[in-house]
């Protein structure tokens, strides 16, 4: 069987996986709605997915210690994703069945990003690939998935959302079955320990950092769950919605691509302040208007509200004590990007059902609270460009 280079293997796997993710993240709430699920239950199901991913990344992912285990784990996780995404077609409008397949799918889905990133980082450390150049193909595929499914759903109905995501996972399955050349093998035995997360959660600076990121990234909850539904309700076609989601990702990728040039010398405080102001403006606009020109501005602000905050978070983690870096990364992915977004998705579901688009005003207010939280990590070396590029795993 043909054995691709590390760059070919990882970039092609990213293409399949993030094509499917570009379908899932923007359009899954729309598919739930198409099954007759209420807005509050859509929020619960979407939040349940994020909560499950949080649990998976705290419990399952840390058990994959050695690099030799990455490829088998990715194969099993990708196979499970493929099976459970297809199971949605048989759940219909049964909330209990939808909740079950949501949990099973996200238990499989959650570990894929950190495991595939670990593969990329392993080969990057051996100078066999450039992480940023490799990861870029995942971003391109995300845009392709969200664009394609918007057109297909508009032409052929909501079930095309599941079929298109399934096609992406089948492609991922074909790619992950191949062996890269060379295979990932540890040079030396490295003892690994699970991070002491409970100890970090007792430190006030860490709590402030997690709270700040939770406010900024958690403000995206209503956007992830209900922006597609909202924009469709006011008359925008699925094809336009797909283009808008793609525009948001393009803005995010642009900020990461030029972050070293644009933000060199900026303090963490400045990055977090600009991101918080972006949150205030973006969601206030979303609550106020659905004009296409305004939606373009709203989506371009994704580079500010998500990407700049992530850049600042990565810098915070890398400037902290070396002994805390792994644990901080785990907490960052599990709490602000997992558990808190899950909670906010559930709350935004009830809010959207009661207040409609006014729920986005609540998201905007979260940016105001974020303005008043300051974080101060201990001084360390500057963040690497590869680490800054590692951004879309939780978007």
From TrEMBL:
Molecular function (Gene Ontology), one example: lactose:proton symporter activity
Pfam families reported in the protein's UniProt record: MFS_1_like
Taxonomy, superkingdom: Bacteria
CDD domains assigned: MFS_MFSD6 (cd17335)
Membrane disposition: Multi-pass membrane protein
InterPro entries per record: HcaT-like, MFS_assoc_dom, MFS_trans_sf
One GO term describing the cellular component: plasma membrane
UniProt keyword terms in alphabetical order: Cell inner membrane, Cell membrane, Membrane, Transmembrane, Transmembrane helix, Transport
Transmembrane segments: 12-31, 43-61, 73-91, 97-115, 136-154, 160-178, 199-220, 240-259, 266-286, 292-314, 326-348, 354-373
Main localization of the protein described in the UniProt heading: membrane
Location in the cell: Cell inner membrane
Domain Major facilitator superfamily associated: 13-361
UniProt cross-references to NCBIfam families, sorted A to Z: mfs, PRK11128.1
Name of the featured protein: 3-phenylpropionate MFS transporter
């Amino acid at each position: 069987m043909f054995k691709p280079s590390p760059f070919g293997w990882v970039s092609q796997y990213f293409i399949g996986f993030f094509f499917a993710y570009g379908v899932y993240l923007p359009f899954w709430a729309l598919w739930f709605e198409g099954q007759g699920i209420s807005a509050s239950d859509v929020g619960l199901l979407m939040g349940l997915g994020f909560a499950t991913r949080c649990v998976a990344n705290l419990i399952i992912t840390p058990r994959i210690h050695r690099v030799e285990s990455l490829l088998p784990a990715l194969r099993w996780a990708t196979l499970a994703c493929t099976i459970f995404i297809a199971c949605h077609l048989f759940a219909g409008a049964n909330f209990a069945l939808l909740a079950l397949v949501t949990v099973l799918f996200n238990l499989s889905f959650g570990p894929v990003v950190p495991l595939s990133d670990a593969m990329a980082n392993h080969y990057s450390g051996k100078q066999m690939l450039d992480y940023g150049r490799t990861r870029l193909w995942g971003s391109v595929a995300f845009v392709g998935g969200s664009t394609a499914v918007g057109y297909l759903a508009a032409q052929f109905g909501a079930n095309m959302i599941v079929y298109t995501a399934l096609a992406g996972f089948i492609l991922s399955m074909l790619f992950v079955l191949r062996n890269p050349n060379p295979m990932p093998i540890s040079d030396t035995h490295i003892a690994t320990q699970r991070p002491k997360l409970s100890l970090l959660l007792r430190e006030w600076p860490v709590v402030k950092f997690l709270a700040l990121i939770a406010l900024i990234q958690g403000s995206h909850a209503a956007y992830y769950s209900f922006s597609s539904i909202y924009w469709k309700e006011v008359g925008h076609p699925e094809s336009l919605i797909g283009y808008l989601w793609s525009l948001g990702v393009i803005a995010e990728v642009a900020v990461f691509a030029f972050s070293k040039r644009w933000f060199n010398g900026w303090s963490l405080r400045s990055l977090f302040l600009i991101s918080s102001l972006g949150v205030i403006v973006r969601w206030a606009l979303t609550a106020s208007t659905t004009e296409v020109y305004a939606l373009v501005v709203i989506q371009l602000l994704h580079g500010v509200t998500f990407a700049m905050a992530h850049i600042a978070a990565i810098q915070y983690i890398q400037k902290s004590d070396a002994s805390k870096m792994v644990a901080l990364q785990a907490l960052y992915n599990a709490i602000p990007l997992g558990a808190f977004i899950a909670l906010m998705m559930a709350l935004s579901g009830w809010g959207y059902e009661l207040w409609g688009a006014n729920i986005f005003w609540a998201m905007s207010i979260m940016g105001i609270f974020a303005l008043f939280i300051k974080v101060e990590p201990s001084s360390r070396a500057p963040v690497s460009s590869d680490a800054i590029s590692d951004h879309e795993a939780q978007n």
